[in-house]
Design goal:
Elements (H helix, E strand, L loop, with lengths): L6 E9 L2 E8 L7 H13 L5 E4 L2 E4 L5 E9 L2 E10 L7 H15 L4 E6 L6 H11 L2 E4 L15 H4 L8 H10 L2 H15 L4
Parallel strand pairs: 6-7, 7-8
Antiparallel strand pairs: 1-2, 3-4, 4-5, 5-6
């Protein structure tokens, strides 16, 4: 199952004179691999809870869960980049979500090495190191492990999606058609910026 290609049926439509199911892209699918996996795991473990995806952020309706993280690709490593985590009473799913999202990313890009990226200002570096060791991933901390200077911002959307704006407009458009999800969107954006098109 490819996480970025999930569709849901919303009624019926007429196409070429025939009534067919109206399949639209699931809103959660466009939010990212990690967020979709995390929400699915939370709903299985806590069926009474209600969870929402808002960009890079996953929250609970009761306000006790807030996770800001997304998949990332940088310097030959691929995995989940974690900025802020407060799981509250919803324990035991974050590590599994990180593992499954990283596995899906590495399935799509097999040349990457698995990593867990954490923000340099994280509250508990020992806990993140323990998680990385348990998963057998490389821990890349913004402050020391990857050589970044504290205070620098996280990678931009294009780089985090694994895309690049290098190449001609036509090659970027070809790549946009080839990839789905966030990476495809970023190739479209790069092509539009290079081509000088307005939205």
């Amino acid at each position: 199952m490819r996480w970025l290609e999930i569709e849901e049926v919303k009624g019926m439509k007429t196409m070429f004179g025939k009534r067919v199911p109206n399949c639209v892209k699931n809103e959660n699918a466009s939010s990212g691999i990690f967020q979709t996996i995390l929400v699915n795991l939370l709903q299985k473990k806590y069926p009474e809870g209600k969870f929402d995806i808002q960009g890079d952020k996953v929250t609970s309706e009761d306000g006790k869960l807030s996770v800001i993280a997304d998949t990332a690709v940088e310097d030959g490593y691929g995995g989940v980049w974690v900025w802020d985590v407060d799981t509250g009473p919803y324990k035991g799913v974050l590590g599994t979500a990180i593992k499954q999202a990283t596995a899906e990313l590495l399935r799509q890009q097999p040349d990457l090495k698995p990593a867990l990226f954490v923000d340099g200002d994280n509250q508990n570096p020992e806990a993140w190191q323990a998680i990385a060791n348990k998963l057998n991933y490389t821990l890349l901390d913004e402050n020391f492990a990857d050589g970044k200077v504290k205070g620098k911002s996280r990678p931009g959307r294009v780089k985090r999606a694994g895309a690049s704006c290098k190449g001609s407009v036509s090659s970027l458009r070809a790549k946009a058609k080839k990839y789905s999800g966030e990476r495809g969107k970023m190739y479209h954006w790069c092509a539009n910026m290079k081509g000088g098109k307005k939205k």
